[in-house]
Amino acid sequence: MGLKKFLNETRKNFPLQTINKIFFVSMIILGFLTGIFIAQIFITFSTLKDIKALENYAMYSVPTRVYDVKGRLITEYFFEKREIIYYKDLPKSLIQAIIAIEDNNFYRHKGFNFWAIVKGAIIEPLMGRRARGGSTITQQLAKSLFTTGERSVFRKIVELWYALQIEKKYSKEEILEFYFNRVYFGHGCYGVQAAAQFFFDKDAKDLTIGEAALLAGLVQQPSAYSPLFNPYRAQARHKQVLNAMARLGYITKNQAEEIFEDFWENYSAVIKAKDINIQRSIKNPAPYFTEYIRQQLVNLYGEENVYSGGFEIYTSLDLDKQLIANEEIINSISKEQLTYEKETKYYEDKYRDEYQDLIDVLSLTFGIDSIKIGKAKLQRKIDNIVSSYEDFIYLSSFVLGLDSVNKKFNQRYNFKTLIEARKDRIEAALVSINPKNGYIEAMVGGTSFNYLNQYNRAILAKRPLGSLFKPVFYALAIDKKLITPATVYEDKYMAFQEATGNLWIPRNYEGTFRGRQRIRTALQYSINVIAVQVWDLMLRTLGYENILNALSDYFGISKEELRKRMMPTLSAALGIGIFTPFETARFLAAIANDGVSVEPIAILKIKDRYGRVIEDFELKREINKSSVKQVMSRGAAFLMQSMMRDVLYHGTGA
């Protein structure tokens, strides 16, 4: 009766003609939407990728590895930390764990589980629960490689289609291999091999049942179930995986309980990772060197290929020598930093005690704003107060929960930023080049390589050579037969006339004179007065242009660039010209190489991810030796070697 009444009322309110119009318009709209849906499906399926991409590991992002001259790993470049693993190396317990928690019908279905999809997409939402996808391992694999992360009907259809195609083409073992190389485990780890190394410092093939169960539990929500971020949720998830394995008969219930208890009892010993991300956990003993070659690699292949191409880079670096270089730099800087701070404090205290009040009075009396130091005196008082109460204020604010107090105190009174604080830090650089083959065996560009300190002083920092410039022009003077190590000069008070017409009187570091001395002794004790006499002789006999030509070969830089760095003045003899440590090392290597120039090399050869050599820079260098030449005679090089040994063992270098 109710239906008849409804139809009668409808006929009264809506004439048949109106109903027909509504029906007609509705059919047009429905047809239009159906057409759009079909067109979208057609477009989507016409642009689908070939599933052969699964077996093409060249599509997988794999880290590029950098090795030293002895084949030892230095570091890796990567967007995704992944190492390809094959089915034969997957432990049985890992396969069982992932099947138990993610897809317990894996060996029975043909790509998807119909009832799981119905339950997850229809039944559970109707019951007021959150919709779940019910994805099989095969669907998860298809989603990771062939679809985007968007939640839509089209994406799900494409995912199901791919899952069916994958099951048709590949065996279950192959699907598992692809899956364990694609899946993300959190903390920057892609693939189970990277995850095993990050969490347990071991290969995936060596995982225990407890370790395998933990990794299997991460797949669904890597961050939420991370033992580093959420240990309690990780424990609950771990127990869930082990219980699922027990339900499927892979282990007994008692075994599940024992494995769980043993694993978490030794949790701190089992979980080796100390950093929250795998990139931070990788220790690099030669960061300046690897950044130096990274820039070369990016120029060759582009950043994307360098970080995901899986290259193997074999370099000239010797890790043993690099570690020694690191230690020497740290020790030297520590000593120099203490000396610097001690001397700085001495002069600051002397200034405050003897001159500050006097200068303050003068600035106030004559109104000279530029030298008013009232603010400096105030800052000094503030510094004293801050140093006295900083720890107390921090501790009090922490205990009482008054973070705002500590924050306000730091904002108002701690004026130095991290960058400003680094200005008071002494830095140093070191580069070691093997003179026989040009291998760059060690490189330190500074201390604490980080986002604030990546400037490679070994390559980029141009600094005055000081007394190290003396061997440079002594070598040239000996080579041109202007002097010998036995040539005698007078070390005495002397005045030289510069090109400007001004008189210049050079001084020795000690402030004393030694009288008549041989060139060998003059270098041994770094006598400035004799160095200026030799340099003066060279300018008058060889000429500035010829000197530039020779030094250009010594340092491996252009004559035009050299002209900018070193003026034709007598004071240049004291090393005011600027050079980098790298350029200086090239000159010293040439002396050690019997006067033959040395072409430094950092990258020896490059292999692709399949182990095929694609670049052999060492071989190319051997074939093309045009850049190597005799920059000084063997005799001059021999004499300089002898003289510099005296400096090291008996002179200022001792």
User: In terms of structural class, how would the helical and strand content be classed?
Assistant: alpha+beta
Beta percentage is 5-15%
Number of strands: 15
What is the arithmetic mean of pLDDT?
82
Q: Could you name the CATH class of the largest domain?
A: Mainly Alpha
- Gyration radius (Cα, Å) is 37 Å
The best one-word shape is: elongated
Largest sheet: 5 strands, mixed
Low-pLDDT segments, ≥5 res = 412-416
Strands across the major sheet, in which order? 2-1-5-14-15
- CATH architecture identity of the largest domain: Orthogonal Bundle
> How far apart are the first and last residues' alpha carbons, in Å?
116 Å
Number of folding domains? 4
What is the CATH superfamily classification of the largest domain?
Answer: Biosynthetic peptidoglycan transglycosylase-like
Question: Could you estimate the helical fraction of the residues in percent?
Answer: 55-70%
Q: Which topology of the largest domain does CATH recognise?
A: Penicillin binding protein transpeptidase fold
Specify the number of helices: 28
